[in-house]
TrEMBL record:
Pfam families: Nitroreductase (PF00881). Residues 60-91 are annotated as: Disordered. It comes from the Bacteria. PANTHER family: IODOTYROSINE DEIODINASE 1, NADPH NITROREDUCTASE. This is NADH dehydrogenase. CDD domains: PnbA_NfnB-like. Keywords: Flavoprotein, FMN, Oxidoreductase. InterPro entries: Nitroreductase (IPR029479), Nitroreductase-like (IPR000415), Nitroreductase/BluB (IPR050627). Signal peptide: none annotated.
Amino acid sequence: MDVYEAVASRRAVRAFTEEPVPRAVLERVLAAAARSPSGGNLQPWQVCVLTGAPLAELKKRTGERAAAGDPGDERQYRMYPPEPRSPYRERRSAAAAQRFGALGIRREDAEARRAAVAANWRCFGAPCLLLCYIDRAMGAAQWADLGMYLQTVMLLLRAEGLHSCAQMAWSVYHRSVAEVVSPPEELILFAGVSIGFADPSAPFARIDRAPLAETVTFLGDAAGAGDA
């Protein structure tokens, strides 16, 4: 699988089979992902991979909190701007409509939407969860490195025939996660990534992306490169 195919086929999978992910594959992916861009070579990511009994325990703890309507722990970082302006507000709303629409969930069906969100803490059935932490002393540039690292991981997983779902949702119950994995105090949980083989029978929406003209501006010689 070439890079373009990996990028095109990567999506947030929210339905996995129970087929286990080989440890050797995970080690190969994470060793290669260490070559991700890193300003000053700080490599600010700290990763914990859960399978088997530890993952089952984590799913149990967070699942119980979600079922009880627990709103979560104090936030360690802000996921989204409090009031996103246009066009970000519309993009987020459209993505939610596409996702829930593919599942047959109506906008007014709050209970069904809550249940769909709660599936985050069951890893959508995935047998493997990667938790990505960052030292709280790091700044915005290192958080950007973290995003590049996780993108590299997810593309390499596609090259191995695997799928994934990046989930900031795990940070909502970061205290429950800490009870299972015992991270050092200086670390902040950024996100989890559920990993496994996609369930081909599950419905899903391929979320639209903005047209190139909305997000890219060409200046100088590059502006006419396509005319040759």
